[in-house]
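The instructor's notes for this session suggest beginning with a concrete chain rather than abstract definitions. Hand out the sequence below and ask the class to guess, before any prediction is shown, which regions might be ordered.
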Amino acid sequence: AIQLAKLRGAEVYTTTTHTDLATRLGADYAIDYTQQDFTLLQGMDMVIDAVGGETLKQSYLTLKKGGQMISIISTPEQSDLDQYGVTGAFCFVEPSAEQLTHLAELIEADKLEIIIDSVHPLTATALAHERSQTDRAVGKIILAIHADTQPKAYT
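After discussion, reveal the predicted structure:
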């Protein structure tokens, strides 16, 4: 999301524990939410929430009046949108051939960096799932179909 927003000309603030990586990917401001209170940010045009719950509720404090709350977790509550004077939407991505072709072109042109956490053979699906549940994965966890694939960690 950081890279795509930058390609569109956005100034990007992000919350993460991987601030160096976020900055490398183009974030203008990377805030370690375990060390800093991100709700001190004010006047944001848009928030893209990927966590939900209390983090979503706190994120409203950062939006300017008329801003947008986009959640990839659930539809924002209308009462919250009204309370903060913002609009909101649930974003569910259904990839299309056109979108995937565009992303492939960006990757081939070195405009998108793909971060891979680990690669697992299909027979190790449980291990890959376990990795995804640790909140320690940095990047994509890949299941390889090839029978001779051995587990590899990149981080």
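Then share the key points. The chain has a mean pLDDT of 92. The chain is about 30% helix and 25% strand.
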